[in-house]
């Protein structure tokens, strides 16, 4: 696919996401409780990411982007900052997710601005504040929280998409955005209707 005007890298992208681990999923959204990888395991993880991203670039011409994800070992502020320091921009970009950032105690606006030069791709979600408060108050697996509806259609949650739209215009972001409705796969009924509602809301905001 040819590179669209304003894009740094042409699609498609290889999205790299750390597996959601049981021991981290139960403390997703709680940076103060979650165990971190040992320095050795972290270096091993970074080496794997760099090897995959380099292979995708050099053999297939595909840009790799790393997606910090709730319940994985690349989720929280300190982990994202270390990731960006360890993986050169020419090797891989970032795919930041507004819903995962908020879920994991980060302000999406702050992080979109902070790493604007590393972002090649975005995911959009929204979070129901009442359900979020409930799942943060008890040990709940991340996908169980999704099954309870913590990720709601965009426009019905807590994220400020007027401000996100204004920021992306200011940054002249020209990359792709995927609108997601995160669900437990066993509770996927209604996903199409929810994504359709999210798309209609975003279009009403000028996206």
Automatic annotation (TrEMBL):
Gene3D superfamilies: Divalent-metal-dependent TIM barrel enzymes. SUPFAM superfamilies: Xylose isomerase-like. It holds the Pfam family AP_endonuc_2. Residues 27-199 form the Xylose isomerase-like TIM barrel domain. This is TIM barrel protein. It comes from Zobellella iuensis.
């Amino acid at each position: 696919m040819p590179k669209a005007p304003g894009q740094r890298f042409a699609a498609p992208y290889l999205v790299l996401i750390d597996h959601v681990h049981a021991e981290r999923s139960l403390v997703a959204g709680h940076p103060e409780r979650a165990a971190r990888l040992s320095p050795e395991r972290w270096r091993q993880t970074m080496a794997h990411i760099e090897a995959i991203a380099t292979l995708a670039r050099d053999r297939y011409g595909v840009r790799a982007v790393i997606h910090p994800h709730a319940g994985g070992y690349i989720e929280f502020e300190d982990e994202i900052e270390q990731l960006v320091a360890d993986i050169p921009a020419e090797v891989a970009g970032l795919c930041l997710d507004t819903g995962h950032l908020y879920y994991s105690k980060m302000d999406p606006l702050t992080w979109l601005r902070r790493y604007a030069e590393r972002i090649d791709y975005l995911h959009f979600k929204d979070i129901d504040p009442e359900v979020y408060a409930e799942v943060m108050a008890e040990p709940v697996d991340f996908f169980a929280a999704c099954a309870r509806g913590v990720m709601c259609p965009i426009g019905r949650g807590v994220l400020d998409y007027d401000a996100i739209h204004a920021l992306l215009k200011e940054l002249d972001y020209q990359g792709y955005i995927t609108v997601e409705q995160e669900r437990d796969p066993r509770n996927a009924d209604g996903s199409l209707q929810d994504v359709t509602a999210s798309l209609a809301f975003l279009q009403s905001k000028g996206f």
